[in-house]
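To: structure subgroup
Subject: Chain for Friday's discussion

All,

I'm putting the inputs and outputs inline so they're searchable in the archive.
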Amino acid sequence: MRLDGLTVKAQEAITSAQGIASDRGHAAIGPLHLLAVLIEQQGGIVAPLLEKVGVGAARVAEIADAELSRLPSQSGQAGLSMAPDLAEVLNQAEKEAKALGDEDTSGEHMLIGVGEVKSPAKEVLTPLGVDQDGILAAMKDVRGSQPFGSKALPSPTQYKSPQGVRV
């Protein structure tokens, strides 16, 4: 995964995930950190997608936070590493972006990656019924079918509203 292939929001999400992992004393940044950030990201698309799938974003955030609290922490850490499952999530997200004809990888692609790669974050989404098919259907409904190619994707208010009207 190349960072220059990520949208600005996706780059911000990775940076924020790193911050959460550091603040909590975790040794590595994992998909759970990324999921927590994507849900809470101001102006992001993941929370609206989850709502469209029929899962309350607040509920997913609550479960993700509880799972983050269960991860072991350490003090005086030398530095953070990227967990192998996060690297796999990011690679899967890049593949999804390409498959959809999108030039850059964004939060919705990362959500699909989180839902596809075996990890604690997938274990948060799966029991709630969040899967690739549901996310793809929600993406089509929320953003339309055109591929996106800009690093600075529109905010969710510029996507289609739940009623199908651009706002």
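Points worth raising on Friday:
The chain has a mean pLDDT of 86.
Strands lie at 28-29, 81-82.

D.
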